[in-house]
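Same chain as my last thread, 313 residues:
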Amino acid sequence: MPKLLISTSSFDVKSNQVLQGLQAQGFEIVLNPYGRKLKETEVLELLSDDDIVGMIAGVEPLTRNVLKSAKSLKVISRCGIGTDSVDLVAAEELEIPVHITPTAPVIAVAELTVSLILSILRRTSEADRILREGTWKPLMGRLLASQVVGLLGYGRVGNRVGQLLKSFGTKRIAYDIFRDDSLFADTVCVTSLDEFIARSTVITIHVPYNQDNHHLVDRDFINKMQAGSILINTSRGGLVDEQALYEALVSGHLAGAALDVFEEEPYFGQLCSLPQVILTPHMGSYAKEARTQMEQEASQNLFDSLLALGLAK
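reply #2:
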């Protein structure tokens, strides 16, 4: 019996008509037994089953070693946008197509980004914490309308964040190496990264991760940021040097930061000790409506590939 692996930490199979249809055709669904991001060894073990012909993938490491070991795997359908966890070169060599769901998470990630900016500026997370500890003390924050928000990356998510910020009267600037002038109708495009950093009082990251931009936001980048500015990352953890960020926050050079993604996940590092930092567990796409759309699109991509391969009907 052919099998399909769903390696995401959660997935609503019962409400998914595409997967229900594949099950009716005789496909067996294999779920992630751990309920969390899988380690490479765990993916290897699950894909060692020679009956698995397709998978709906999360952010687990699909390395060359994993893909070469998956002898029967014919298609990978990512439930999300990024492909940094997949060795695309190896997948192409092995003739395993890799699909993504590029539009489904956009609104959810953008809304989380704006909520984190607001929470850091108005210090709502800090105020909630100290009130629960028994202290009634209003905290002085800053207005979003008074900030210059720098959008590092102006693709789908960065553009959506810019649209949302417009309603706050926020000044927006953007830096993107893949400049598309049609996207910059009402946002200032900055062509120099140094100028972008110097002008921004809030920097929010919206670029895909690869080895070439590992620690793009490094100690030098952070030192160039305005004193008292804040950093938001809802993109990928490897883009930020977390040690350099920690030091800048402790020294007071940065006023705050919010991270939804980390270099190593789950994250339990030293940033957890800082009250001016908000940390969330990689939940940018975890809005019910967005998650449903992602799962539907990932399932449809999987079905279409299986159909093209003659494995489904």
